[in-house]
Amino acid sequence: MSQWSQVQQLEIKFLEQVDQFYDDNFPMEIRHLLAQWIESQDWEAAANNEAMAMILLQNLIIQVDEQLDRVSQEKNLLLIHNLKRVRKLLQGKYHGNPMHIAVIISNCLREERRILAAASMPVQGPLEKSLQNSVVSERQRNVEHKVSAIKNSAQMTDQDVKYLEDLQEEFDFRYKTIQSLEQNDKNSALIKQEMLALQAMLNTLDYKRKEVLSKIGRVIHEIDMLMSNMLTEELLDWKRRQQIACIGGPLHGGLDQLQNCFTLLAESLFQVRRQLEKLDELLTRLTYDGDPIPVQRPQLLEKVNFLLYNLFRNSFVVERQPCMPTHPQRPMVLKTLIQFNVKLRLLIKLPELNYQIRVKATIDKNVSTVSNRRFVLCGTHVKAMNMDESANGSLSVEFRHLQPKEMKTSAGSKGNEGPHMVTEELHSISFETQVCLYGLTINLETSSLPVVMISNVSQLPNAWASIIWYNLSTNDPQNLSFFNNPPAATLSQLLEVLSWQFSSYVGRGLNSEQLNMLAEKLTGQQVSYNDYQLSWAKFCKEHLPGKSFTFWVWLEAILDLIKKHILPLWIDGYIMGFVSKEKERILLKDKTPGTFLLRFSESNLGGITFTWVDQLENGDVTFHSVEPYNKGRLSALPFADILRDYKVIMADNVPENPLKYLYPDIPKDKAFGKHYSCQPNEVSKPSDGGGKGYVPSVFIPVSKILNDSTEPHSPSDLLPMSPSVYAVLREHLSPTAIETAVS
Question: Same domain, yes or no, for 658 and 585?
């Protein structure tokens, strides 16, 4: 079943979550019409490879054209209209930046997998629940409402300032007219009456000046309160959501909404600043005793500038954390001399700033006491922000050719360079720029989340464990000494993150039973998820009891095995995987003989085995487990074919396949049939031949079990049999005779 088919079967509350991340950037009708094709492409790789992204974009447009031809024949007018609109969108919006559509589709597929995993859980995880808090959503709506109200207030004050300017111009004209009269004329009753009118007008001017200053003060106060409270919380929440998304959690959205709020507030502050400048002009033309402008204007202007400084400083964010294109699902782990990507955005989107802001990237700028190792960034480390490279028109800059290089120590050799580089050592990528606008000069700085530097890909698993633990445990964006004394983590949150590793990396998360097994393996006992605190050492540094490896190394090897060798079977949900030997026997003991299940080895790294139940002549139940298959053997023979062709030779009996039903009662061929590399009756005949006179061979896995054995034995070496020989045997011999010949 395709991933999209599974999504469509979700409950309405999960379908509403799916609906939230499909918009005009990637319309849902395309996801629906091209479901199989979209899922068969590697969008994650394309998101970091421009040439590959361009090819996929062109192929996507071809797929849309084919759908257009089909619906045109069906005369489906509405669908024809929508597909033409989508085609125009794809060609116009993404032609100059094909990687953006790859990022969007990759994120959508990943978020679907996460929602499917969440739907299989009995309850929502604590981290995800905190991110989807209804109070947070209400605050988002309040922020947007208040920003809109502030913008309207600033515009209304503009009208008051214009009225004040018109009133003062009239006063100036009438006052200068009187001043131009001869002394005798000034003593006339008419002139005295005009002077009284001017005094009344001056009183009105004074009142209006005070009123305008009061309104400006209220706008400034509202902006100050909004920035100090709700907007700051919104920005911190977005940064926390980004942290969680980086370690496999829910897709973090909301940056466009924040950009809209920041931009509107900046526009309002600049508008207020112009109003204060206009009041200064009016002051130069007219002042009087008790004039409020020279008293209040400097304080208000100082407050406006202060708010602008803070607004700009908070608006400079890392939109996409540092990540190597070769490992898109392992952000913040960087390898020396390997390029990485990182993207920054200024949330204040003003046309005047396009191509005017140059950003400089550095590493470990202010951390002289944290690490003994020193790095420099090679490649283009200064670039200008612009609105042209992003499909949504944001003011951003993406560094794509940076690579870290370790500097030589004073002794002339590299410090800790090589396979023993410390994966708990945190570093920081910093960015700085300067904004010059309307007479203001503002220096901006921001930093990435802490990154881990490795010199060999073999260090990547432990480095990724450090990234997981840091971002799970703290929302401090720059605690580079974190691992000097790493805090414990709540078991319930850690298990949720472990499930995310599977949903984001291999397409299917873990259910409650699988998580229970991991919890017992981590703690050595059955514990309450909510109360138990797990140490960093227990997770990643201490060996499992009786083993030569840690829990994390064991789990990472399983992820690698799934990704490279058994991914389709895992996505279909046919691999129970995380189940102890004791539990598997409880599950199988009352099942039909030949019922089996698939589980990951607890003693071998990156191994998968299967156990089946059998019944002896005296009625006793027995269990057999095959020696775990690792990536070496699975590279030679697909796992689905192993399950199909597996044979057991019992003493004095013909070989037979003992695997009949996948637990609980699914016929084996029904579960795995679509994953077989070829059906047995499709094996080539001798006339088909092989290359250079050889006939092709096929490998059949065989195990031998003795009657008096009390423990399951390992399988023998794989036995070769050519497809042509097998086909001829099936034509001329009965199945029993074939099995006898094999034995």
Answer: yes
